Amino acid sequence: MPEKDKVQYVAISPDMFQAQNNDDEIDLRELWNVIWRGKWIIIVITAIFAVASVFYALSLPNIYKSEALLAPADSDQQGGLSGLSGQLGGLASLAGVNLGGGKTDKTALAIEILKSREFFAKFAEKHNILPDLMAVKEWDMATNTVVYDEDVYSVDKDEWLRKVKPPKSPKPSNQEAKLEFEKLIQIVKFADTGMITISAEHYSPTVAKKWVDWLVQDINAVMKMRDKKEAEGSIDYLQSQIAKTNIVEQKSLLYQLIEEQAKTLMFAEVREEYVFKTIDPAIVSEMKFKPKRALVVVLVTFLGGILSIVFVFIRQLYNS
């Protein structure tokens, strides 16, 4: 039999398994001994982290949250247009009139407008939210007033004093402010119910409520003006087409289109809550939303314990 084909068999006795298990037990015992020898180091470091976490948690300002529950407003003003589809579809399309079988999803459009840069720029300028957004230091509960950072913004002079490097300027730009605003505002649409929630977070519960109320009011106003402008433009175009035709049937269809657009104008005039109906309005919250100080203390203390154990092991390896 060739030498290379020979197979060696090694007998493994139970004693070898026992020796391996003993090695594992020795390793675990040694690890425990290292931890035990460094127990005072672990206790001291963990205690330092625990005390520091308490001071850190207490230094965190309270954040309050205000939230409004909304429902999409009915869009019945387009119900009669579907019957005209196919009869005057091309002309209506030129006039900007929607004759499609389905309704326009105004809710989705309104949400996207809420998130747009143009809407935020007009919203921030109209309500002057930049000081409350970018310069707040704390909220005085006793007087219900916002305290501003004097190094950032002067209330008396209405002047921005913050020191920043170019391309930033002392007064925050719309781009910079919008990034901060998006961190505090949340818009959620529930797919199962179609309901929408708009929430705002702030040091002041009063400011948080105002922001939510203003957002709902402004988006309703914006959507109303968009539809009014579109309907008025459509009516002007349709009236010009009536003057150009002598066909009675065609005039009748054009008058029906004008009637539907007049309904849109009527809805826009009489409805305050044009695209969103308020089901549960925003309130001034009496309870803070965050921070969860107990959780902060627990997590920081746990982190201190882990780091102290790691330090003890590194110290043992270095000494070895």
TrEMBL record:
Annotated signal sequence range: none
Keywords: Cell membrane, Membrane, Transmembrane, Transmembrane helix
Superkingdom to which the source organism belongs: Bacteria
Domain (Tyrosine-protein kinase G-rich): residue spans on this chain: 276-316
Transferase found in the keyword field: no
Membrane disposition: Multi-pass membrane protein
Keyword Transmembrane helix: yes
Segments crossing the lipid bilayer: 40-58, 294-314
Residue ranges of domain Polysaccharide chain length determinant N-terminal in the record: 24-126
Cellular localization per UniProt: Cell membrane
Database matches in InterPro entries: Bact_polysacc_biosynth/exp, GNVR, LPS_length_determ_N
Name this protein carries in UniProt: Lipopolysaccharide biosynthesis protein
